[in-house]
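# nightly structure sweep
# worker-07 picked up a monomer target from the shared queue
# config: single-sequence mode, recycle default, output format = structure tokens
# input follows
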Amino acid sequence: MIVVLLALTVLATVPDNQRMGSALQVVLPLIALGCAATGGKTVESVGRFAVLQVGVKGPKHLFGERRISQRPDGGNNGFPSGHTAVATFAAAQIVRHCAGLHPVTKAAAVAAAAFTGGSRIESGRHSLWQTMAGAAWGWAIACLPLAGFRGAGRWIRRVRGGRHV
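# output follows
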């Protein structure tokens, strides 16, 4: 099912790598959220996504026009690549939360995230380093232990009477 969704996204997108990367950075998190929800990890996943966004938006505003944040196409606020961070986060979440998936399906999610990062470099929106920083941030937030999110999901389930959130 996931491979089909990824294939449909690629086929439905205009043959433009930048647009395809942008589409994948939306579709991958939706798939990841679905996987998290089936395992009762919705709160944790949404919380991690919020932390991800703070870590993407914060440096963009902090560094603004500094050299590290200058985009190859001449713009600012390029550090880190948000598209790459979101896609990498989602791919890592898919691999973590969809344990029953075939390894080829997991590889397709990771390849879609890598494609998203490559599309940002190819389109001149981000440098290699900005893209790598986004990928590292996305992976870290998806995979490293973050205090509070696991406990928050259990607390909400108790309050709601045991139903998954």
